[in-house]
Amino acid sequence: MPAGGRPTVRSRRLGAALRKHRQAAGMDQAAAAEKLMGSVAKVSRMETGKVTSRPIEVRLLLDLYEVSDPEERERLESLAREGNRRGWWLDHGGSVSANYASYIELESDATHIVAWQLALIPGLLQTPAFAMAVLDANPAVVPAENRDEFIKVRAARQRRIEDGEVRLTAIVWEPAVTAPMSSPDVHREQLDHLLKASKLPNVTIQILPLSAGNVARVVGPFTGMSFGQHSTLEAVSFEGYTNLVVVEAAEELGWYVHALENLRSAAWTPEQTSAFLRKTLRELSQDHGKEESS
User: Fold this and answer.
1) Which end of the chain is more exposed for a tag (fewer CB within 10 A), N or C?
2) 3-state DSSP of the chain
3) Are 77 and 96 members of one domain?
4) Structural domains counted in the chain
């Protein structure tokens, strides 16, 4: 059984994939149960993620469903192998809620992450000082005693970007970059960090200009994820005030794919974005120099 006695992100994703392949093969759960020499109830629990499928069981079912794509087979067998793997984030106690842990587990498997933000710098690109200022502005989000640990968790998540383990595409509305931050120093440090991150081969940053407000207002902030070699959107998450929602249904994902296409088309190119960041950074430095000389 998955840790905690309930479906994990990995077991749920694996189960959904097995169900999809079974249905595509035109088979019922009884045929799958016969192949595994088990019960229909077990197959049902596997497909809902309530039990962790073993790699050998996944292999047998994929053979039965005639799934020959080696990439897909390896992806699903990997989910089975790692279904109960203990996540590093569980060592950070009260700073990681159950919802947040599920999100990090999903993110840790992603090969491509795309983030759209209206008012904030995406979390995977935030400096510690910027992140702390955001937490200070809304103390209810993370209790004061957990904030240092929360920042450590954020830094650990960012390490996958820095190490090139995952591709990141960030689209940010212009006010998130130009609006005053908690201090000029925090503002300059954050913009400098964005410029440095944009030079990484696995990172693409685009700013949506203020003039594209109609496009910006169509959809709220969200993060999309892909889990294979291709950038096909497979999951989308967005935050409520007290919880985090994950969307995986294909019919719903289509709306987010369409929104991303519009956002990317209306945003400045990565080159134009870097030029804008450098210009904004120069202006901030000049304003700071004037303040010091006055």
Assistant:
1) C
2) CCHHHCCCHHHHHHHHHHHHHHHHCCCCHHHHHHHHCCCHHHHHHHHHCCCCCCHHHHHHHHHHCCCCCHHHHHHHHHHHHCCCCCCHHHHHHHHCCHHHHHHHHHHHHCCEEEEEECCCCCHHHCCHHHHHHHHHHCCCCCCHHHHHHHHHHHHHHHHHHHCCCCEEEEEEEHHHHHCCCCCHHHHHHHHHHHHHHHCCCCEEEEEECHHHHHHHCCCCCEEEEECCCCCCCCEEEEECCCCEEEECCHHHHHHHHHHHHHHHHHCCCHHHHHHHHHHHHHHHHHHHHHHHHC
3) no
4) 2
